[in-house]
Amino acid sequence: VQLQASGGGLVQAGGSLRLSCAASGRVFSANTMGWYRQAPGKQREWVAQKSTYGIATYMEPVKGRFTISRDNAKNTVYLQMDSLKPEDTAVYYCKLIQVGTEYWGQGTLVTVSS
């Protein structure tokens, strides 16, 4: 399984970005896809996730600002990020979990200027 993330960039505080992550290869119909992020000098942290037909869950700091969604037919997960803050600056990684195995995509850099 390979994951290809895209959509990062530079945005001013209060702006929006939409990240995408497409999975290819042997992707099963039942899985969980999610997003993590790693800010400079900090550990990687979980941001949001959504299983194939399940509800979405979010870390507290992004609730009400970020929305995770999926296109199951395309094996793609999205992260709509609104009202961005400088503290959202990080490399964002997507992850897929299926049959007890984790797969990671390459990161995409999000920089929010104040």
Mean pLDDT: 96
Strand content: over 45%
**In angstroms, what separates the terminal alpha carbons?**
37 Å
Order of helices and strands: EEEEEEEEEEE
Low-confidence stretches: none
Class from helix and strand fractions: mainly beta
Number of helices, where a helix is a run of at least 4 consecutive DSSP H or I residues: 0
**Largest sheet geometry:** 7 strands, mixed
Number of strands: 11
Q: What percentage of residues falls in helices of 4 or more residues?
A: under 10%
Oligomer: single chain
Radius of gyration using CA atoms only: 13 Å
Shape annotation: globular
Topology:
Elements: E1 2-6, E2 9-12, E3 17-24, E4 32-38, E5 45-51, E6 56-58, E7 66-71, E8 76-81, E9 90-98, E10 101-104, E11 108-113
Parallel strand pairs: 2-11
Antiparallel strand pairs: 1-3, 3-8, 4-5, 4-9, 5-6, 7-8, 9-10, 9-11
Short descriptors:
0% helix; mainly beta; globular; seven-stranded mixed sheet; 114 residues; 57% strand; four-stranded antiparallel sheet
Write up what this structure looks like:
- The chain has 114 residues and is mostly beta strands.
- Helix content is 0%, strand content 57%.
- The strands form 2 sheets. Strands 2, 4, 5, 6, 9, 10 and 11 form a 7-stranded mixed beta sheet that branches. A 4-stranded antiparallel beta sheet has the order 1-3-8-7, with no helix packed on it.
- It is globular, with a radius of gyration of 13 Å.
